[in-house]
Structure formats: structure tokens, C-alpha cells
Amino acid sequence: MSKNNQIETIIGQIENVIWGKRDKIELALAAFFADGHLLIDDLPGVGKTTLAKTMAKVLNLEYNRVQFTSDLLPSDIIGVNYFDTNKATFVFKKGALFSQFLLADEINRASPKTQSALLEAMEESQVSVDGITHLLPSPFFVVATKNPFEEVGTFELPSSQLDRFMISFSLGYPNPEAEREILQKKNTLKEVTSKLSVEEIVELRKKCDEVHLSEDVLDYLQEIIHFTRDSGIFYKGLSTRGAIALSVVSKSYAFIQGRDFVTPQDVQKMLPFVIGHRLELRSKTTDENASEIIINSLHIDTH
Length: 303
Known about the structure:
Layout lengths: L4 H11 L6 H12 L4 E4 L6 H11 L4 E5 L6 H5 E6 L4 E6 L6 E5 L6 H4 L3 H6 L1 E4 L2 E4 L5 E6 L12 H4 L4 E3 L6 H9 L13 H12 L5 H16 L9 H17 L7 H12 L14 H9 L5
Parallel strand pairs: 1-8, 1-9, 2-5, 5-8
Antiparallel strand pairs: 3-4, 6-7
Helix pairs in contact: 2-11, 9-11, 11-12, 12-13
């Protein structure tokens, strides 16, 4: 199975703006096509917002951005019922959440109450207001950016909120070659030459879902899951939602790489981005990160 031309076109157009970050672009697309959500945790000014805006434009999705602040209210995001005097009835005014692509910028600057407004939306693609359920557009994709907790005026995200994000990563600084190009040129959001339809997105998501997960790879996934719960090296093990995230994003990533089957290497590649915001080591005395400890402890032959 060769690489999908649509996927290569999407990546190429995003790379026109986000230089030198193909690996992170692939990760972001893997989360999107796996019908998940993405958390980008990094310092200001490294391109988090630009990546989100570029993805939304290339994927041809309705885009909304919400700047999270300490005084932001849940109704500012979800919407509110108001009394329409002309109709003599209550009418629901939709908030910014009602978009196909929502950028929750600096999500950890809002209060926990406001952060929790996203929980139902991210899990079920709907919101409930005054006992009435309102369905969100499809597709519905949340990219949240997060500044480091040690910065002034931020709130730590609760584990229930973190678990709603399929993967998380940091963009990091560009490599010297890419940064030199950025300094020499004004890289703006250029016009895209091809735009996906909702039907094409649905079809690509279907193809990702159809990627084969063999019994051997499924065994490997379960060994990882049980290790996180039984080894005692983490404060808590991987949740069932987290386990599903590892499975489906591995399938999506395999598809982006041009394969219709998942390899153990795909699982290993996705592992740090699935567990990075979910698991915390009890001991910080090792130089290995959590995913390295898991992979090295299981001694699985991936060749």
C-alpha cells in the first residue's frame, strides 16, 4: 500500500507554513483522522496557533478560536438561552464551540469550571443546556494549547480533562535550517490549492478505522496497558479511554505512513504522545522517560 496522495497533499500544504515539523504535522493529522482531540503543550511563540489555523484551512473546516482567560465563562463557549421578545420564546444562541475545528488557546488560563465545559463536547460531540441536548457539527476537532504550569495565571488541567485529549506533544523550536528560512521569509497562511469535502474526510477516517490490527499487535497493546496498571511505577495506570486512544491513533498513523496494517513500531511511536499527559512516574530518578521504561521492560521483538 503506497502513501495516500490526499494525505501527502495535506501534509505538503501544511508544511508550506509550518517548516521543519513534518513529524508533528503527521501526529496532529493522526489525531484528527482517528476522531480524537489534540493538546499542544509548549512555550508561547513556537507556532501552536499557526499550526491549528493552517490545519483548519487545509482541511477546509469551519474554524473558531477561543482565547481562554480567567474570566471566561462556560456560556461564552457553549452558548446561552435568551428570551426572544419577537417570538415570545427562549432561543438558544450558539457559542464558539459550534464549529468543526475549535482552537482552545491557552486552555489552562481558564478556571476549572470553564475548562469542564468542554468535557461533554469532546466525548460525545454534543452539549446540554437547560436540559436540552444540542449536537455539534461533524467533524468536530479540538486543538488546545497549553502554557507550562509554572507560568503566572494558569490552572492545572484535571485528569478528566486531560484524558479527553487523544494525544499531546510539544512543537519545540524549529531546526536551524527551518528557522533561517523563517527569518528570511514572511511565512503567512498561503492559499491552498485543494480543499477536502466532509465526504472525503469521512472516507479517510473510514480507511483509518479499517487498518488491520493483528492479534500479535493487539497482544502487545494489552501488555503495555497492563504494565502501566500492574508495575507500580506509575501513580495510576492507563484508562480504558487511553488504551482505546493508543489503539486507534496507531491505526491512523499507520495509514498516514501508507500501510493498511499496524506494526509494533507504530504503537511505540504513538506511545509517548498518548501517555505523556496521562501517566506520571512515581520515581523521577531514572533518565528514561515513561514510554522508554515500558518498551524496555516488555522486551518485545519488533523486527
